[in-house]
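We modelled the chain as a single entity of 86 amino acids. Its sequence is:
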Amino acid sequence: MILWCRIEVNVSRQSVSRGKSHHKTTRETPVVVYFATFVGGLLGYVIARIALDGYPHPLHWALGILSAILGYLAGWLWYRYQGDMI
């Protein structure tokens, strides 16, 4: 008895995208944002340390972190309207 097998071979070409490449472009953070974050956090902590001397120490750190976040946002605004420092 002879068994007949049916074999299908797909010889079609793979599709090639001719549009934009799918490579992601990396976007680096500008120096002005790092600078504003550092300065904002440091100034916020020092000012909170002086103004809130009688209060618990974690409050100083919380205000330092909050001012660093505000400095981060201010750095992006600076970059948006003034450009980078370097």
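As a brief sanity check on the tokenised model: Residues 31-82 form one domain. The mean pLDDT is 84.
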